[in-house]
What does this fold into?
Amino acid sequence: MKILKSKRGAFALESMAMLFLSLLVFAVAIRIIPVLSAKQQLDTYTGELRRTAESAGCIGTETTERSDELTSDTGLKPSITWSQTGKIQQGQEFTVTCTVTKNIGLWGGFGSFPITLTSRASGKSEVYWK
It folds into this structure.
């Protein structure tokens, strides 16, 4: 009965459990923080494309070139959809939507959780087309 009442070694077991849990939380944080960073980059990416389309007054070569620049800068390769294409008259609204999929799986393929990140921005053309 004395053996069951003894608490010798309890600290070692508790500290091992706390160490395991803290490492698990750390591993999850390492996989989630890059996804949060990618969402922020995607929002900036979409805003930059919107601003380019506003100042150019059209969706075409200018926006494609800017998209290529942003892709090389950020490393993101989102799918981009526009509510309109071609020339946009001054004051006319348009929307750009960028979507990218990121994976927050732990330890390689185990626990793979693909998450779709979406960013949307609306703007108005600043160019008057005759």
